[in-house]
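Aggregate trends can hide what the representation actually does to any particular protein. The sequence in question and its structure tokens are set out directly beneath this paragraph.
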Amino acid sequence: MSEALYVRFQGATRSPRGHFPGIFALANGLAREGKLSDEQYRFWRAGNDWYDAHYPNPSHTDPTVYDSSRNPGAVAWFKATAVHLIERVDGYLQLLAAHEVACERVESTDPGRIVYEDEVQVVVVPWEKGCRSGS
């Protein structure tokens, strides 16, 4: 089996739109709903600010990248080489665990059709069952 090229941290339950939300969306949801303690909120705000400064936002480059009609189910994956970004995920996982939000780490050599790519990430439309070219 080939070594994974891409890593994603996502919820274990599908959203109403049918995909597994990523950890940032899950943490943002907790903050938006006012469920974070003051300490958790400070961590979340500082973490998001750090990622905003060190991690390109695909929507700024291509505003249609997450458009559900153009790229249905599009989700972001870290490139496995983006260790400096992946290492900082643990705090988000701890935050979500404190709120009993189940998450999982998923790895793949081919998570879907790439619709955006930069140095540290890809955004893909997941392969449909039976159309997958790898995993």
About this structure: The two ends are 9 Å apart (CA to CA).
